[in-house]
Please model this.
Amino acid sequence: MQSGPREIQTPFRPIPLEVPEGMMPNEFFNSTENLNDLVHNNGLLMNPENLLLYRKALGHSNEFDASIIYNTSNCILDPLGRPVRRTQVPTYVRHVWNRMNQVLIEYMLEQYPDPDEALILAGEASLDATWPLTSPGVPSIRMLHNHFIVFDKQQIRDARLADENNPNLTDGGQHSLFQAYMHDVYYEFFSQLDLKILKPVTDGTCRIELTGYPQGLPSWEVQGGVDVLKSIHFWREYDAILKGFIDFYRTFFTQVSTRNAPIPKDVYYPEQIESTLIYNNDFLKTAKKVRDQCVRDAKYANAIRWQPAFKQLLYRDDAGRLVVTISQNSIGNAITELLGVVVKRTPDAAAYEEKEPQLIERLLEVRRRLVEADLGEPISTQYWGSE
Model:
């Protein structure tokens, strides 16, 4: 079977929400009104830390698909003042967040033990306003959320090949500036992180054979498997990967913006930045390349995301290993495309409702486990009760 990114069809039940005149759909779906819909129509569980578990109404998969959002819309009214990545979340909230992640990932692996039958992933994409402020669809409300998704691999096998030039496909060789021009220094910078649990995978064996993704991205095997997710040391290393990425991104685009700029303030790894990046010719000449094009090409300059935009993922590879990877975000924001799965959502209430009972049964079971672990209280909606 030919390996390559796949485009799958996922039916959904149309959401009974009307986008107000003068608003872009993306702006509305990031609004407080839509967040209220998440709670009252799709909410599964909420806790005092403002972490909301909900069903994805516009889902990626009807096998298993849920998200946790750090819903600070009512306690932090300034959209630009809200946490948008784990490194900005208070420690006590992050502790609960990590435990919720562990319960959900353990449940998915338990329900889908065969890596040949199911593709399992969990991760987050930055939701901050890294788009140009003048662009339509810039998120009007910034929220940190992550995804928990299971795909039936037979559906992926049966799907048609996706267009490899789809701008959403986060492919290191095609769309990632880091991978295309700074591959060696990017890997060298990550190699300096002090990691004990996460072991670098450099031979490409962690790719999903069906899709050939992820491509060209730094990846790490989780030594010890799912049991290690119960350890705070794993989550510290998971955050170390993100901190390293943020430092690299900020340093690079600071150099793009201002030639020979000093190291950005409040970085996590200043010594590694100084020794690995600031004196690296490939790093600096790539910054010059981007800077020069920004000066010449207004459209290109307007598309630059000056602040860190990323996708970080934990997934199960074909060998059954848990693997962590991280990528510069592409134009799109769909985290599934990091693994070469392009989701085409189609409005089809009847097809969705065929899958809905099993989907809800799984979501309610994982909710029960979270409640049992004192990680929140159940929410009642028109589709399910609080028991």
